[in-house]
Fold:
Amino acid sequence: MIPELGHFALWLGLGVALILGVLPMWGAARERADYMGLARPAAYTLAGLVLLAFLCLMQAFIAHDFSVLYVAANSNSLLPIQYCIAGVWGGHEGSLLLWLMMLCIWMVAVARFSRHLPMPVLSRILSVMGLISVGFLLFMLLTSNPFDRLIDVPADGNDLNPLLQDPGMVSHPPMLYMGYVGFSVAFAFAVAALIGGNLDATWARWTRPWTTVAWLFLTIGIALGSSWAYYELGWGGWWFWDPVENASLMPWLLGTALIHSLAVTEKRGSFKSWTVLLAILAFSFSLLGTFLVRSGVLSSVHAFATDPRRGLFILTFLTLVVGASFSLYAWRAPTVGLGARFALISKETALLANNVLFLVAALAVLLGTLYPLLLDALGLGKISVGPPYFDAVFMPLMAPTIFLMGAGPLVRWKQATLPELAVRLRWAAAVTVVASVVTGWLAGQIHVVATCGLLMAFWIFTSVATDLWERIRPDGGGVAVLRSKLKQIPRAMAGMMVAHIGVGVFCIGVVMVKAYEVERDVKMNVGDTTTVRGYTFRFNGVQDREGPNYSAARGELAITRDGQPVTVLHPEKRIYKVQQNPMTEAAISPGLTGDLYVSMGEEVEGGAWIIRVYVKPFVDWIWGGCLLMALGGVLAVSDRRYRRKQGAAV
Amino acid sequence: MKPRQKRFLIIGIVIAVIGAAVALILNAFNSNLVFFLSPSQVARHEAPEGRTFRLGGLVVAGSLKRDGVRVNFDVTDLAQTVPVQYEGILPDLFKEGKGVVAQGKIENGVFMAREVLAKHDENYMPPEAAEALKNAAKNATESNAKAAATLKP
Structure:
């Protein structure tokens, strides 16, 4: 009965979404207050219905109702409770429901926190979001209904893919989707403003916090996915340039560009039409990502669907959304105007360059991701574009971006001069060079890649420090004045600094791992030792262990350094009972200056195992940097002017 | 500088940056494309000399041999077979008789794999491997199916 209730809630939701998509929009055009008044209640109702459907599906999982096809395919009676809940988004149908759930959360947040918005604007925004949910509801109901029943009820379910039975599954998809879908708010704001013709600095101020929040969720979501891949796949890599990763990176790159261009539009009124275009692009890339991941054109752990109708539906929907919004843009944008003028050397130019670089980076990723698919679709042969391409493209694009990241915040708005800037940054440049070389020397060898990366990281740190110093420079008065000046720095500014420092921390992690990591595959008998970078790994043999729904061979490696015990690690080789697949569970000893990472290959003759041993210097800085970026986002949205003028933005 | 000139300068700089980026991207793109070949194509010497490519097919049952961390196995599309050598840990779902995709180079008639690609699901066949089998089967029915009969998929 409960699955039918969920199914019914989705149909009812479709009706409400249609009302929400049409009537308030119509009301805004005709200045009909009664129709516009429908926007909020309809949004709340739609969200309630989707939540009901979501809870129904969750109940089916928890109750192990294997008469529901989706539950039978993605769960099992032995599955622990937390994975039953996460199993809701463990497959194609459920992850679409999660997508829709997130859209509803954003919609409710907009309805709740935008009381100061003029009614026509709010009506249009909620209407646009309603239309997006119509598309996704139709997609679910027509091609991928999570509540489909089975006539022959199986005795037990097929189990959740063992790779997904991990705490990462509980947090990574909701965070990522929250970010992905969050760009729909910026998109809806942009479309509403294009229709209403009220694109101005106020529009940018409204859009900014929403975009920042979406961006920070996306940042955390991507970081979680990356760290999950790092410890779960057993290969010790943190980014593979897998098409699915690229699908989430492209909206992130465009979202980052959007955040920066919104700053210009709000402060100076420039780049208006460009900012609107970016808002549309960022969401289009989110949809494109959904299409790539969910249509089955890619083969990966994330791709479930192989039903061609699904791919066709998303492609049609994508074409409709992108086509309609670009047509609207082409029709309305020329009336927007270019905004305030600025000199060649100015903060505006620096931010414009930032935008160009991020856009080019996103397009380069797009080319590498879509080209193989295109060739395949045209029957011109099968190729793949591997990490070397992306590495070769990204490094040269990120170098000027990071140089600008350091200098940009110190450049004045409207007009600045280069000599003055050079004088202000001379200490930053000197410290950067010295610090990079010293770090390389301390690490034991000067490595080209590492030195480049360290130059970038230290450049960010020193220029942020210069920026901060210029703002609080004591002109007499001592510590007390310094402190009060520090307090006067707006949260948005502090957020920017923290986020930029996060990028520097991220850079250090990336280049230190790339340049100084050591990887070794060794055959080890019980009692054998191997030494990597001063750490001695001793293999103490393997024991059998029983998990809730798997049995495992659990190895033990004792690690010592100069005879002193460091830690004992227990990697596992698991066999999950239902699907009978082996799974490698790596064991990691994390540390501020690096991780020790071991995973088990297969058993060879006489109790010996192939063991993979890694030393990964500074690898956790990669995710630490991402968290700092997200923290910067949190600081930025908690800025006082958002609180005073429009209440808390989420 | 007059505003007009300034605008031209900005546009010029943007175009130069984008042009440089596009040149860079296309260059990197061209030199990093990895082609996919089936064992039959390798047997016909279509493999580019000294260049990395992907090989897909089935792992021949009984062909897997280990020597410490080094592994040797044969990959077939049921028409032709290519010997593969790999050093390191094979993915969890690597099995004899199942589909596989490996990336590497041909050296002295042996495919030296740098990477053996993981599959994420036991029922899932890498599309490249499936394609190779399909093509080989088509060719086999056109000539004769002798090779196919001797190998157990």
In short: Residues 300-305, 645-650 of chain A have pLDDT under 50 and may be disordered. Chain A touches chain B through 48 residues (CB under 8 Å). The longest helix of chain A spans residues 201-232.
